[in-house]
Specification:
With 460 residues, the protein is an all-alpha fold. The chain has 29 helices and two strands. A two-stranded antiparallel sheet has the order 1-2. Helix 7 runs parallel beside helix 10 and helix 10 packs parallel to helix 12. It is elongated, with a radius of gyration of 27 Å.
């Protein structure tokens, strides 16, 4: 089993359960929960617990044994079902030194909650008075060094949180930490995605996740995977974005500022799978509800209209054989055409700055700045202030483009050096000369040279 960085351990440091609990390690990732729990039940040293006589009595063990043989029968009796759930929570809470016992307990809980017809009733077994989830054991398990325990516990807690109240913020914080970690260590994404996709089905769980920067983390993960990434992971991440785009509570600003529209557009163009295209299109369509100016501008300047038009003309949306895709393509295209207007290159630059999604292109050239530098002075240099703020972005590309634009604007605007200095742009660019990323170092050095040198063209 693997451990995670920081408070979750070290991902690439392998541990063996023999050295900690004298237990045999078992790979649970390739089996379903029923097969896993059956195997693990036989691996747990129940005799040791029975001899200790503290955490498990003979009657309780017999209950586990009977339920293992026929779970549906045990769940059919309300008294037995509650007793089993209470016992599993007790074992999860007390038997923390046994990795295999913990794996068994949380896999068994996940299996119990897998019933679609009895889900709410069974979920209620893990609550206090049918209201508050007994989530202490689940939250402790998230800090386990065993990835199987982490995944099963997070899935179980996410399932419970879709119908009952509990520590949703604690699970959200763990999920965001795992997504952040996953940008460097992909295995963390595999562990977090199943529970994230479950949790976001409940509307009241979406806002806390968005408030923690979750939308940006999903988009960063999609960009990290790329169009040729794991198709199932691309689907699950796009599904998560779709849930977050639903309803009036959707955080449109968060979608705009993290570049989600261009990422979703690229997924539609790449078409890694039919279900990814369906989710990406539906997400884009959801974002147009309310006719947000920023959303429409980003779509219209990002080439989405032309792509949808080509899909319609080539009948690609019909060839997919998916009525939802066909409907979303036509509806999205009609909305964009109703709001269509010709955008100048300057409009495109303004859209990029306002959404915080700078990317290399024709609006980041010497020719563009020679023609448009004067326009930036409107509203007391509001857009220039926004550009300077983007120097604090976590994205190498955004910071590099912002540095380039700042330097070019300084060259072509009368007294540009004085304005940039008074707004703090010079100081921020100077600090970036010592950045760990060599690309940012290079553009920061060029930017400072343009800010400080009068005749830059003679220095090139």
């Amino acid at each position: 089993m693997a451990r995670f960085a920081g408070k979750y351990g070290e991902l690439d440091e392998v541990i063996t359960s023999e050295t900690q609990t004298n237990e045999r390690s078992f790979d649970v990732t390739s089996l379903n929960s029923q097969e896993v729990s059956k195997h693990l039940f036989g691996q747990v040293d129940w005799d040791e617990f029975l001899r200790a006589g503290v955490f498990l009595s003979q009657n309780e063990f017999q209950l586990l044994e009977r339920a293992q043989d026929n779970l549906d029968y045990a769940m059919g009796n309300p008294t037995t079902a509650k007793s089993l759930a209470t016992l599993l929570l007790k074992l999860a809470d007390k038997c923390t030194s046994s990795v295999t016992a913990q794996q068994y307990v949380f896999t068994r809980i996940e299996e119990i909650l897998s019933s679609e017809t009895e889900f709410r009733t069974r979920a209620g077994l893990f609550t206090i008075d049918g209201n508050k989830i007994q989530d202490g054991p689940f939250l402790r398990a998230l800090r386990s060094t065993d990835i199987a325990i982490q995944e099963s516990a997070s899935v179980g807690l996410a399932l419970l949180l879709t119908v009952y109240n509990g520590e949703v913020n604690s699970l959200v914080s763990w999920l965001c930490d795992m997504l952040q970690l996953g940008l460097e260590k992909p295995q963390a994404i595999e562990i977090a995605l199943p529970s994230l996709a479950i949790l976001l089905r409940r509307e009241t769980c979406r806002q806390p996740f968005a408030a923690k920067g979750g939308i940006s983390l999903i988009v960063q993960t999609l960009n990290k995977l790329g169009r040729n990434g794991n198709a199932q992971q691309l689907y699950e991440l796009t599904f998560c974005l779709w849930t977050l785009s639903l309803g009036e509570s959707a955080d449109i600003d968060a979608f705009l500022h993290c570049g989600s529209i261009s990422t979703l557009t690229e997924l539609v163009a790449a078409a890694p799978s039919r279900k990814v295209v369906r989710m990406a299109l539906s997400s884009l369509l959801n974002l147009t509800v309310g006719s947000n100016e920023g959303v429409l501008t980003e779509m219209l300047t990002g080439g989405l209209t032309k792509m949808l038009e080509n899909m319609i003309h080539s009948n690609a949306h019909k060839q997919a054989g998916d009525p939802e895709v066909e409907s979303d393509v036509r509806n999205l295209f009609e909305i964009l055409m109703k709001n269509y207007r010709d955008f100048s290159t300057y409009d495109r630059w303004v859209s990029e700055v306002k959404t915080g999604n700078l990317r290399w292109g024709i609006v980041h050239t010497e020719k563009f700045w020679r023609e448009n530098a004067k326009l930036v002075e409107h509203n007391d240099f509001e857009l220039l202030k926004d550009l300077i703020r983007l120097l604090s972005s976590d994205s190498t590309v955004i910071v590099a483009v912002a540095l380039y634009d700042l330097g070019e604007w300084t060259r072509f605007y009368p007294n540009g050096r004085g304005v940039v200095k008074s707004l703090g742009g010079k100081d921020q660019a100077m600090e970036l000369i010592g950045h760990r990323d060599p690309t940012i170092q290079m553009y920061a050095l060029q930017c400072i040279s343009k800010v400080m040198v009068t005749n830059w063209e003679f220095m090139k």
